[in-house]
Amino acid sequence: MTPALLLSVVETPPPTFDKLESIKLLESHGWTKADAMCSLEVIDFSANPDEITIRRAISPFAGSELTKRQRLQVAQKGLVTRKTREIELKDKYRPEIFYNMFP
Prior knowledge:
rod-shaped
């Protein structure tokens, strides 16, 4: 082979990702920031991982596990919202009840 042909065969290295870019990558695929950060804890970013390395590392967190965690988060948020509304209603009507008891 001639040197010109050898240069065309040499591949460029795959792009590497830092933690912020990895989080953005996962968010673009429907992950929440919290889930992305949790799944990326197992990756050593000082080794400059590429996209394939990142996807392999997060695979245990993906699929049905991700959906399950996201549904649990939504349910927990709903419970917090419900309790907050109950407290607000109690605080709103508590003075009226108290003053009506002692005219």
